[in-house]
Amino acid sequence: MISVKELVRESHLPSNYFAPDVYIQGDLEAGLIENRKGARLLALPEPFLRAIYEGLAEEVGAASESVLYKCGAWWGKTFYRRFAEEVSQHHKQPLAEIEMIEFLQCFKQSWKTHGWGKVDLDFNFYQQGFIVVQVRNSAFATSGAALGKPKCFVEAGLLSSFFSGLTGQKLHCIQTTCESLGAECNHFVLGLPERVKRAEAWLQENHDHATIMDRLCQGQANR
Amino acid sequence: MDTALQSLIYAADDHYLSDADLDRFGKDVQALGDRIEAYEYIRERELSILQPAVDYLTEEFLGSDPKLLERAVMHWLSILRYAAMAMLLNNSEYLSRRILEWLPDLVEVYQLRDIELALYRLILVQAKSSLSPEQLALIKPYLEEAYAVLLNAKPALQKAA
């Protein structure tokens, strides 16, 4: 027999921690936007992001890509730490013990609530050592000049260190499709650096996402 | 905040409210009183609405994993609480944001759709006997909304295919 009274007493009721109306709050008197834990949030206007992209490209040329990736990676490290802390506290258990589906729900909702687009994870290539991330309405695809190649370097860096934190292994991330090039969504492939970096050459040869995934998985099968 | 009252406050941004608006304001405030009463009533009778429904559910799904049944019960506990709050605020978006946008994936992964839909039906039967027709009319649209969302979650067989 299930006792509702006992369930209420002992269990954690499911709820959406990152629901935007409760997660994003403000201290209007002080001119602050904060998350529900009191950490400051900033709303960045698109022209500012564009200015960073273009300013960097002008100053350091092609190196701006790796600078942006590193900025994203640094940001992702702290984002992961904050995410893990908040979600663990909310669920009253360590992140590693939270059910995978509940972790995914939190991850997807946090992305949406921060205004970074709609994210989905594809674990179909997990056995081969890859996780594919899809992002629609990315905040980073419209910034900066067209490069003729995927350009969400900040996002790729952010994902690399977020999932490195989560898995405890150093992961690299490459972007295989980009909304700025007319793709339906941004695709990012995460995996161990020596495995994923092989895809960079195929990207330069303009291979599509499906071909790149086939080749990456084939490479793993041949090992 | 109550969405109807909020829209009147926004409307009064730079002018006095019209007589028709003021009339609406009065009615909305009155309706808020009814909703507060219904909210209190549901809050006090949460257990007496849910426990019989859960007892019937365990009979109906005798061979099912008790952990799965408990999970579905937890979902509906949350739905009832958020639905009551959404009713109080007269704001269905509150219910969607806080729980309904979040639930279908969980229902799909744990293959709970049939259990959750049965529980909705049983809770509604209990709500009908515990609440007055007026109170039921206030909360029912929110429960129906939750039902509609869960109905669209993929059933177990479709998922396996």
Tell me what the structure shows:
- The complex is a heterodimer of chains A (223) and B (161).
- Chain A has 223 residues and is of the alpha+beta class.
- Chain A has a single domain, classed as Trafficking protein particle complex subunit 3 (Muramoyl-pentapeptide Carboxypeptidase, domain 2, 2-Layer Sandwich), CATH 3.30.1380.
- Helices cover 48% and strands 15% of the residues of chain A.
- Chain A contains nine helices and seven strands; from the N terminus they run H-H-E-E-E-H-H-H-E-E-H-E-E-H-H-H.
- Chain A has helices spanning 4-10, 20-23, 46-60, 63-91, 100-113, 153-167, 193-196, 199-204, 209-221, and strands at residues 24-27, 32-35, 40-41, 118-122, 131-136, 172-177, 186-191.
- In chain A, the strands form two sheets. Chain A has a four-stranded antiparallel β-sheet with strand order 4-5-7-6, sandwiched between helices. A three-stranded antiparallel β-sheet of chain A has the order 1-2-3.
- In chain A, strand 1 (24-27) and strand 2 form a beta hairpin.
- The model of chain A has no long low-confidence stretch (mean pLDDT 90).
- Chain B is mostly helical.
- Chain B has a single domain (3-160), classed as Phycocyanins (Globin-like, Orthogonal Bundle).
- Chain B contains nine helices and no strands.
- Chain B has helices at residues 3-11, 19-44, 46-60, 66-89, 92-100, 103-109, 113-130, 133-151, 156-160.
- In chain B, helix 2 runs antiparallel to helix 4 and helix 4 (66-89) crosses helix 8 (133-151).
- Chain B is elongated and about 65 Å long.
- Chains A and B meet through helix 1, helix 2 and helix 5 of A and helix 3, helix 4, helix 5 and helix 6 of B.
